[in-house]
Design brief:
The chain has one helix spanning about 30-35, and strands spanning about 10, 20-25, 30, 35, 40-45, 55, 65-70. By secondary structure, the chain is mainly β. The protein has one domain.
Length: about 80
């Protein structure tokens, strides 16, 4: 399993107070990754986010992050350079 601690999307630089977690920057906010389709009367994914497989959403659509521990596994893993 590919883990967050070896992933280029895992950011720990500003999270020292979150007890050893990191923020996943591969996961995007659902509201920012979609747009309204008038013809369908529903939301659809914006083309630039079609590759993203996981999303966050809070009650206000203002900001949401996914915090993980180093040993969390993910299919969007990309090895750090």
């Amino acid at each position: 399993m590919k883990l967050c601690e070896t992933c280029k999307h895992w950011n720990t630089s500003e999270l020292s107070y979150y007890i050893g977690t990191g923020r996943c920057e591969a996961v995007r906010m659902f509201f920012e990754s979609t747009q309204w389709n008038k013809e369908k009367g529903d939301r659809e994914f914006r083309p630039e986010f079609s590759h993203v497989k996981a999303f966050t959403q809070d009650g206000s659509d203002y900001v949401a992050w996914l915090y993980t521990k180093p040993d969390f596994g993910c299919v969007m893993h990309e090895k750090k350079p």
